[in-house]
Amino acid sequence: MSPYTLTKTRFSEGTWEGVVTADGRGTPRPELVATHLGTSLTGVTVTDTAEPGRWVLKVPVPPQAVGDGVQTVLIADARTDATLGSVTLVAGEPLHGDLQAEIDLLRAELDMLKRAFRRHCAETA
Questions:
Q1: Closest by alpha carbon to 71, among 83, 63, 59, 60?
Q2: Distance between CA 90 and CA 94 in Å, rounded?
Q3: Contact yes or no for 84/44 (Cβ under 8 A)
Q4: Does one domain contain both 110 and 63?
Q5: Are residues 20 and 79 in the same domain?
Q6: Range of the domain at 121
Q7: R_g of the chain computed on alpha carbons
Q8: What mean pLDDT is predicted for residues 55-69?
Q9: pTM, two decimal places
Q10: What 3-state DSSP class applies to 98?
């Protein structure tokens, strides 16, 4: 288990940013690694903040991680190999059908609930 907690702050212009917080005093600066499909990413930075035990993490998302389907960048503690977080990118046409099917299913379930509620109200009135 890692002595660090990672909280996302923003994802803008191809760079994912978060705050790394140490669980206790005296915890050293984190050594973090970001990987995509098992390959370590370059350009990952951990910057000190004015507050002890907190650092700003920046992970540039590489172009090869942007494409059809679901792509995941894992962020891990290099010392313990514990995964602290992930960046998930969802894009492309293959997902359009899946999302449309889910929306259609939700609409059908909502219609079923409305009918059941109306029937219940009519029977109890």
A1: 63
A2: 10
A3: no
A4: no
A5: yes
A6: 93-125
A7: 22
A8: 92
A9: 0.73
A10: helix
